[in-house]
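forwarding from the other thread:

> can someone predict this with beta-D-mannopyranose?

sure thing
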Amino acid sequence: MGEIHFVLKHWKFKESKDDQWRLAHVPGCVHTDLLRHGIIPDPFYGTNERELQWIDKADWEYEAHFDVPDDVMEHSRVSLVFDGLDTYADVFLNGEKVLSADNMFRSWKLDDAKGKLKPQGNVLRVYFRSPVAEDIPKLKALGYALPASNDQSEAGGLGDQKISVFARKAPYHYGWDWGPRFVTSGIWREVRLEAWSNVRITDLFIRQDRVTTNAAELTAVAEIESEADWQGKLKISAAGLEWERDVMLAAGVNTVELKLEIPNPKLWWCRGLGEPHLYTFYAEYVQEGRTLAERSVQTGLRSVRLVREKDEAGTSFYIELNGVPVFAKGANHIPNDSFVSEVTYERYKHEIVSAVESNMNMLRVWGGGIYEQDDFYDLCDAYGLMVWQDFMFACSMYPGDEAFLNNVRIEAEENVKRLRNHPSIVLWCGNNEIDTAWSHYDEKSGWGWKQQYSPELREKIWADYEAIFHRILPEAVQRIAPIAEYWPSSPMADWTNDASQHARNDSSSGDIHYWGVWHNVEPFENYNKVIGRFMSEYGFQSFPEWETVRTYAKESDMELESEVMLQHQKNGSGNRLIRQYMEMYFPEPKDFRSFLTMSQLQQAEAMKTAIEAHRRRKPYCRGSLYWQMNDCWPVASWAGMDYYGRWKALQYTSKSSFQDVLLSMDGTGESIGFHLINDTLEEIGGSLRIMLLDFSGKLLQQWKPAASAGPNEAQVVYSLKAEEVLRGYRPEQVLLLAELEQDGQLLDSRTYYFVTAKQLELHNPTITCESVEASGGTRVLLQTDTLARYVTLSAETEGIFSDNHFDLIPGIPKVVEFRIRRSGEDHFSAAVPGELTIRSLADLTKA
Ligand code: BMA
C-alpha cells in the first residue's frame, strides 16, 4: 500500500467577526473569495483599489469539514501539510491548535496528525491574523523605521508606517511602482493529508557533481523516512541505466547517497544553443524484492558557472552553460497576478512560450514577488529558459533579530530544496537593489537611506543586512544545492566588502541596473554609452492597448490624467516622462487611442536601442534583461506583455532584437556601423546589401560588402560615413535598408533612419492586404505605396503576428502570419485573423 495524498479541497471562509460562512477557493485568498461572492467589486476596476484597503486590517478564518477515507486511516502515519499559508496563521484541528505560521514562503507540517484525526467529522480551521495589526507593533518595538521605497503605506491608510519589511510575505502585495496594494491573506497553496506506512522517500536530489559531454557524474541524494530500522536497497534508474546500493535505515529521516554515472549524456541547453533535454530519475526503496517506496524527479544535465574572471577590461560576469559562454537575453519577471493563486498553468505557459517566441533565453525571477510555483520552473526547464532566481527581498532594509533571521534561514533552505533539481535555475541572487540603495562603503552613493541614521544604527542595519545576504543565504545555497552559484545583490560590482562592491553605471565588473534613461530623463542614445558586463535591468514604460485599458476604465475615463488612469499609473513621474520623451522622439498623437499605441512604439524604440547596444558589446557585455516581462494587473508599466498576455510593441521588438543572428546598425551622427551579432555556435559567412532608399522605395545608392562572424561572436562588418551616404539627400526623406544574406537565404533585414520618427517627412500610405494562397487565410501579404513606419496590425480575433510594428517599403512586400493562443501542445497555432485593422505612424498623428 503506497503513500496517499488526500487533498483538502472543500473550504469556507468568513471575516472572523462575522457569523456567516461562505464557500472559499483553496488555493486562493480573501480578496478573490470576496470577489466571487460579489461582496467586493473587481479590485482591478476603476479606483476600486482604494475601497479595498480594509481587507488587510481584518482577521479572516478558513474552515474545512472532512471525513478521512479508510485507506488514509489504515496507514500508520498521517501528516497534515500546508504548502503555503499567507501569512500569520494559527491552525486548529478538531479544536486543538496544531500549527502557527508566520512566513508565506514556507510550508507547514503537522507530523503526527493521525492521533488527532477522526474517521468522520473533522474540522480544520485556519485563523489569519491581519498582517497589518501583526506588524505595526514590530515597527514600534524596533524604535526606528527601515527604508522600503516601494511600500505604499499611505495608500493603505498607514501613513508612513512601512511594515512590509517585517512580514515574510510577497513584497509587491504592499504596492510597487507598477502594482496595486493588495495585502492578501489566505491558503495560497495546496493543503493535504499525507498517509504512509513503513517507509517513504520524501525527497530526491540529483546532484550534478561534474557534467561534460563525455559523462555526467551525479549523486542521487535520497531522503528516506522510515518507521523502524530496516535493511534494503535503494535503486535508481534513468535512461535505461540502473544503480543500486544496500541501505540500512534507522527509524526517522535518513539521507542516503548513491553515485550515478551517465556516459555521453544528452545535455540540457538553453533556447538557441540546443535542446533542453530532460531525464527522469526513478528511485525505489526495495526490500526482499518488494518496492516499499518510490519517487521520481525530472532534471536536465548541464554544467553551469557564473564566470567572474579578471580580464583587460575589468572582471567578467556571465553564465557559462556546458562550457559555452552565453549571452543572456530576456527580461525581469514579476508575479503574473496580484492574487498569485489565480495564475493558471495556461497563463504561465503563455508567458514562457512568449519569452521563447521572443528569442529570449533567460528570465529573472525578481526579488519583490514570490519564489514561483513549480509550473513556472517546469516550463522553463522544458522550453530551455534559464532562470536568474532572486530570494524574495527588494528595495528595503530588513530587521535582524534572531527570530527573523531564523525564519529567513528556513525559508531559504526550503525553497532551494524545492527548486534545486531545476536545470533552468542558473543563479541564486540575494536581493534586488539593496546593496546599491544602501551603498554602505560609499558615503556619496545610494538612495539617501543610510544618512537618516546615527553612525551606530547604520552599522547595525548593515550588519543585519550582511547576516542575511552575506551569510545566511549563501550558506543555505551551499548546504542545500552545493554546486549552485550565488550573487548577494543585483546590481553589485563585486563582493569585496569595500567601496568597490557597489555597482555604478560605469562599473566594469558585476551587473548593472541602468535607469538613467527613464528615471533620470537621459536620452535614448545613452543606452549606447552605459553598458556593463551584464545589464540585469533597464526599462521604459508604456500603456497597454485600448482593449486592455477599457477593462478598467469607462469611455469617459479615457484620458491621461483622469482619476482612473492615474490609479493605474503607479510611477508618480510616469505620465510626465512618457510625454516628455514623446515630444523628443515622436510626432504628436492625434487622440488618446493613438497616444496609447504611440507610447508602445516609443517603449519599443527605447528597448531596441538598449538591447542592441548591449549585444553589440559582446563579449564585454553578456547579459541584457529588460525591466519587465509581464504585469500583475492591467496598468501602465515597463512590461512588454500586458496583464491579459497581449503583446505590446516591445514584445515584437524583443523577438527581433534578441534573434540569435542579428544585423544591428548604430549611428553616431557621422558614421553608421553595421554589426553582425552571432549567438549561434556556427560560423556566419555571408554578404550585406545596404540600400539607400527614398520613401517611394527608389534605390538611390547601394553597397555590397561581405559580412562574417565566427561562432558566438559579434563583429563590426562594415561602416559608412553619413555624408558619403546622404550626398545631398535630405535625412528626413531617406532610409537605409540592410539585408544580410548567406547562401541565397535572407538571415536578417533592418532599417536605419538618420532622424527621429518625429522628424521624418512621411506621407499617408495606402496599405493593401491580401491573403496568401495555400495558407488557409492565416498568412497575409502587405504592400504599400509609400514608406509606412511602424505598421501596426490588430486582428478581430485575439492573437499574435509573426511580426508587427514593422516598416513597410514600397516594392518590398511583407508576409505576416497570424496565430492564436490555444491550450495544447503548441500554445500558439495558426489561425485566420478575421478583420484586420492596419495602422501606421501616419495614422496616429495629426494631419
Ligand atoms: C527596478 C526594479 C523595480 C522597479 C523598477 C521600475 O529597480 O527593481 O524595483 O519596479 O525598477 O522603477
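The domain at 322-657 is CATH 3.20.20.80 (TIM Barrel). thats all i got for now
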